[in-house]
Design goal:
Structural class: alpha+beta
Strand order of the largest sheet: 2-1-5-4-3
Shape: globular
Strand content: 25-35%
Number of helices: 7
Number of strands: 7
């Protein structure tokens, strides 16, 4: 249970800033790859726990994150060849998809297939190919780093203003509604910003 969400939100801001810098970094090292992997997993864990603890507004919790999905065409990747993603998935025919926040977080946290991707022309980091152990037999996702950055900042910037509780017939008190401060509410919060999905839209 997360009792105080502020430190987690502050860390999400820092993660977003680091990932943004990495997306503009030209000199890449093994350390850089580690930082990206660490920050993506840290952000996924923090967002999942905040969501499970009802520290995210209902409106934002309904956000569906844009990704590209690649169907499996080869054998199911195992620990020996999981990095050879071109052998297992149809990378030439990505399908635009939207997945829920919990689904995205679980893909990153429980990733079995993991590959950082960069553009061919500038060689700048643009996202990751990822598939959890449970889904590797079906498909692979490409998650644009901009989408993760944008989601981190949306979660980090929320100011929860109203939480409604209700005791069920079983006698257990539960949270039934979470809303942001009224002046901060924006219908567009359910959609990721255009700049965050630019790479996704270009595919």
């Amino acid at each position: 249970m997360i009792s105080d969400s502020i430190p987690w939100r502050e860390e999400l801001w820092r993660v977003a800033d680091r990932l943004e810098k990495k997306s503009q970094q030209q000199r890449w090292t093994d350390r850089s790859s580690f930082i990206v992997e660490r920050d993506l997993m840290t952000s996924a864990y923090a967002i999942r726990r905040l969501n499970e603890a009802r520290k995210i507004s209902d409106a934002l919790a309904k956000t569906r994150v844009p990704v590209l999905r690649y169907e499996r065409i080869g054998s199911i990747p195992d620990i020996w060849d999981r990095y050879e993603i071109w052998e297992h998935y149809d990378l030439e025919n990505g399908v635009r998809d939207h997945i829920t926040i919990p689904h995205l977080c679980n893909q990153l946290i429980h990733s079995f297939v993991w590959a950082i991707n960069a553009t061919e022309d500038t060689n700048l980091f643009v996202g990751v190919y990822v598939a959890s152990e449970n889904e590797r037999a079906k498909h692979l996702y490409f998650v644009p780093v901009g989408s993760v950055i944008d989601l981190c900042r949306k979660v980090a910037s929320e100011d929860i203003g109203e939480v409604q509780y209700q005791r069920g017939t079983d006698g257990v008190m539960r949270i039934v509604s979470v809303k942001v401060m009224e002046e901060d509410y924006d219908d567009s919060i359910q959609m990721l910003s255009p700049h965050a999905t630019a790479h996704y839209q270009e595919q």
